[in-house]
Amino acid sequence: MSQFQLIDYIPWIGSVVAEVLVVAIMLKRDLIRSFPVFFVSIAYDVLRQVTLAAVAYRSALGYAYGFWITQPIEYVIAFGVMLEVFRYSLGADPKIPTRTLRVMAVVAVLLVALAAFLILHPDISISNLRGLILALDRSIGLLRCGVLLFMWAFAPKLGISWRHHVWGIVFGLGIYSGVGLIVTAIHATTGNLCGDWLARLTPFSYFAATIIWAAYLWRPEPQRGPLTLEQISFFSNSIASYRKILAELWRSFRDGTEH
Amino acid sequence: MGLSISIFICTAVAVATIGALILETFQRHRTEHRTVEDSLNTMRRITEALSELPNLQGKERAAKRRAIAREILLDTGFVLSMVMQCWLDEPPKDQEVRERTWDVVDEIRQLNWEVRKSLFLFRFRPRLVADCQRTLHAVLGHYRVWIAYVRLLKAKYPERYGELSVPDLPLDQSL
After folding, report:
1. CB-based contacts of A11: which residues, under 8 Å, 6+ apart?
2. What's the rounded mean pLDDT across residues B31-51?
3. How many CB pairs under 8 A join A and B?
4. Which of A120, A176, B29, B123 can pair with A209 through a Cys bridge, CB separation 3.0 to 4.6 Å?
5. Which residues of A215-252 are buried (b: 16+ CB within 10 A; e: fewer)?
């Protein structure tokens, strides 16, 4: 394990500890039923990190191969997590307006086309394995970030209100994906796969994401009681007075007092 | 050239994602600590601001309209969080409750879109929105959201709110 320095162990061990915490919190709060794919992603990463640590102890090359072979599974699960939080936030009976659906389809096609364009027109040669990995990594990073941005942008149009736990998952994933995309974009143009200071940003961002997940899942969802009758009657009285005020304002603006 | 474009695209998407999520987190923090009392106070403030509008000119009027739009956005976010809390805690089986829920979500969806559009115009095309019609529509829309929410409460908890009469508020000038 001589290829790693002390600074590499901080996010590595730290994220595993935080992930174990997330697993424990999810088990304790019975959140697995709500977010099964997210639970699988965390459990998978804990297993992966522990296995890779054992492999790295024996062979640096084995670690590198192990890391890149298991990486696509992580990507697939991450997209599964995004789909899961999106479906959860839409509710059991989603009602998406046709126009919004059309815009979403167009944006999705553009995003996929952009990711494909970056693979077909790479900045470095993809005839070798390193170049291919870098180009693919960049495009997948772009897709992941794009989907998260897309979900955030469409939330008001879809009437989505991200609840506390779901938002924690989206927020952590977004931070990790965003930093990861910047790093892979630079690597894909310089041809570096790892070993520089920039490569350390991704594990640190993942460590930050695991802390965000643990913190958000630890806190229970905020609860609000139903409105009191006094509050509702105040509201009803207000509407009557607003009607008068608004009617006067309509008239005053219509009669040309506006500037 | 190709090199700079790909880095530019990826960095822009990454920064936009991180920035949007951090901003949303701050926004959520404000909504999470909001109470119904805060909402009622918002209604009071909006009404006061609205009645001051005809007497204001230029920048003062623009600032007041922006303030009203932001208050509305914050409050509809709060109402939406309450509606979604109801929905996810106890998915409605009753058809009327489902329809009432979607009525609120539809009202909020339309209003949010209009208010965001107005905020954009206030900032970049203020001449197009100098007549305050958008602000009046937004305020009406805000009350329609609350009316739809109270109707949802009536449908969901008939034993508690069944006796309440909810006034209507048409979204036009026939007030």
Report:
1. A200, A203, A204, A206, A207
2. 82
3. 198
4. A176
5. bbbeeeeeeeeebeeebbebbbebbeebbeebeebbee
For residue range A132-146, what is the model confidence (pLDDT) as tens digits?
888 888 888 898 898
Domain count, chain A: 2
Closest alpha carbon within chain A to B139:
A246
Cα B126 from Cα A114, distance rounded (Å): 35
Does residue A1 sit within a domain? no
The CA distance from B167 to B148, in Å, is 10
Same domain, A206 and A122: yes
A248 and A204 both lie in a single domain: no
Closest chain B residue to A155, measured at CA: B109
Model's pTM, two decimal places? Answer: 0.77
- Domain residue limits at A147: 6-220
Q: Tell me which residue of A243, A257, A236 sits closest to B174, measured CA to CA.
A: A243
Cβ–Cβ under 8 Å, residues A134 and A184: yes
The domain spans of chain B are: 1-33, 34-161
